[in-house]
Amino acid sequence: MKNETKKSRPEDFVENPAATYIENNFRAKKGSIAIVPGFSCEDIVRRGDAQGDGEYPTASGDPFTVFCDMVTDGGGWTLIGRFIMKDQNSMDMMEDQSNTYRKILPNYNTNKQYLLRNGFNQLKYDMGFTQIRFYCFKKKPGRVFHIMTNKNTEGADVVKFFTESETMPTACGSFTGLPDDNSSLAQNCDKWGFPNPDRWGHQTFLNDKRLFSRAMTWQIGRFYRFISKDPYSCDDIKEGISLGDTWKIFVR
Q1: If we measure between CA atoms, which residue out of 247, 218, 251 comes closest to residue 77?
Q2: Sign (positive/negative) of CA torsion 235, 238, 242, 248?
Q3: What is the C-alpha separation between 140 and 145, in angstroms, rounded?
Q4: pLDDT tens digit string along 101-134?
Q5: How many CA atoms lie within 13 A of 177 on its CB side?
Q6: Which of 29, 85, 136, 244 is the most buried (most CB within 10 A)?
């Protein structure tokens, strides 16, 4: 293994007593220019090359640009889905649904970009992410829902559910609420799921868009979803949507 592996993937590095490893202090920072892309947002953080939130070139093959959150919980989060109610026309925009993550991820600013399940699974295979983070805020009811899956068996089962498995995973113990979360949904994981409680997802909606529609379901009516054919829900019971309402999904 070379020094590049030692820096970006220390868990894969094998020490060679006969080798000398020299750090090049004059190298371009990973993710700073397209010819020196980071492997992922997490890779850029791990190498100490993060320059705050923003766009970075990344590569699992040919470089492409993604948006990285380099602050939340230590950073390294790649944005894979977003909807912001920017104006009254936002909900009327055409949806772009694709299994090609190289098409979806760089176009996050166009709002209705949905990476379908097979593409999400391919992204996991290529990028190697192990966590998913969900965020949303609606002025009505005025709460923030913000959680990330844990790095444990329960959290790994959630990642599998959204990429390859049909088994609805256990909710409680699979995620952690972030400091700004003040939602009822995150506090009632034992009530998630349909038909069985304490589960992610909804049995009737185990389709290619499960990441965006009823990823979490509480049967009194609270959901997490931002698909135009469904009400845009964020820990609410069919409240109206307002300018500035936001949904985001990240992986790391």
Answers
A1: 251
A2: positive
A3: 13
A4: 999 999 888 877 789 999 999 999 999 999 999 9
A5: 14
A6: 136
Residue-wise pLDDT for 189-220, tens only, equals 999 999 999 999 999 889 998 998 889 988 76
**Cα–Cα–Cα angle for 189, 238, 91, nearest 5°?**
110
Q: Would you give the end-to-end CA distance of the chain in angstroms?
A: 23
Give helix 153-163 / helix 117-127 axis angle, nearest 10°. Answer: 130
Q: Measuring CA to CA, which residue among 221, 102, 226, 207 is closest to residue 162?
A: 207
Angstrom CA distances, 127 to 3, 158, 178, 205, stand at 20, 17, 24, 27
**Where do we find the tokens 């925009």?**
93
| Strand 96-98 relative to strand 113-115, pairing | parallel
- Cβ partners under 8 Å of residue 12, min gap 6: 1, 5
Give this prediction's pTM: 0.84
Contact at 8 Å (CB) between 49 and 32?
A: yes
Q: Is 13 left (phi over 0), alpha (psi -120 to 50) or beta?
A: beta
Q: How far apart are CA 47 and CA 90, in angstroms?
A: 37
The residue ranges of DSSP E strands in 17-165, in sequence order, are 54-59, 63-69, 77-84, 96-98, 113-115, 132-138, 143-149
Length of the chain in residues, anyone? Answer: 252
8 Å CB contact between 163 and 189 = no
